[in-house]
Design goal:
Blueprint (H helix, E strand, L loop, with lengths): L1 H6 L14 E3 L9 H8 L26 H13 L8 E2 L2 E2 L4 E3 L24 E4 L9 E4 L1 H6 L3 E5 L5 H9 L16 E5 L12
Parallel strand pairs: 4-7, 7-8
Antiparallel strand pairs: 1-6, 2-3, 5-6
């Protein structure tokens, strides 16, 4: 899929602005870095201007001075400093054109984990998490209101390992954050392979 995107003649890369719904507080060179993964898979091969790629400030994430709070504050300030032509704001929340979302086997999205206190935070756009149940423990993440304010949300699921949770998300509503992915509302679509969709009712 990515190869087709990279070579598509109709894509005007100059209009792309790329953000991260969450990021691990590690240097970009670390194998755990979401930015590093995106750069290797796509960004190094397409002509999006560097000034339109908004990665976490990894100088705040060196081994000796990791601060999720500082990284979250810095990232939010950068987003709030963008002109509305780049990032519109409505009712105090940023309106991203599209969020690509994955989910974990526990139903977490971004770095919003089941029954975690951050699920109920409604003020800041970007939240620090110091105790992620999935390593590394220090991360930053979009808040749930920011996720739901996006114009379009698209879940991407591939493989049999995603099948059970995908079915749970699509067939049930989450109770008090037990499945964070089920709390995503608004204009939501899914991209799934046959394996990930294998536990869905045929009528869905």
């Amino acid at each position: 899929m990515l190869q087709g995107l990279k070579t598509a003649a109709s894509v005007d890369w100059s209009k792309w602005h790329v953000f991260w719904v969450d990021e691990r507080c590690v240097p970009h060179s670390d194998p755990e870095s979401n930015y590093g993964g995106a750069y290797s898979a796509l960004l190094k091969d397409v002509p999006i201007p560097d000034s339109q790629i908004y990665a976490i400030n990894d100088t705040l994430c060196s081994a000796d001075t990791v601060s999720a709070a500082e990284a979250a504050t810095d990232y939010e300030a950068r987003l709030k400093g963008l002109p509305v032509e780049v990032l519109p704001v409505k009712d105090g929340l940023p309106v991203f054109d599209l969020l690509l979302l994955g989910f974990g086997p526990d139903g977490h999205i971004c770095s919003l984990f089941p029954d975690h206190p951050l699920l109920t935070v409604t003020g800041p756009w970007i939240l620090p998490i110091e105790d992620s149940p999935k390593p590394p423990p220090k991360r930053i993440t979009f808040s749930l209101p920011v996720v739901n304010a996006a114009a379009h949300k698209c879940f991407v699921a591939c493989g049999e390992g995603k099948a059970e949770m995908a079915a749970q998300i699509l067939k049930t509503q989450s109770a008090e954050g037990a499945v964070p992915a089920a709390l995503v509302t608004g204009n939501v679509s899914w991209i799934m392979d046959d394996a990930a969709a294998s536990q869905l009712p045929s009528k869905m």
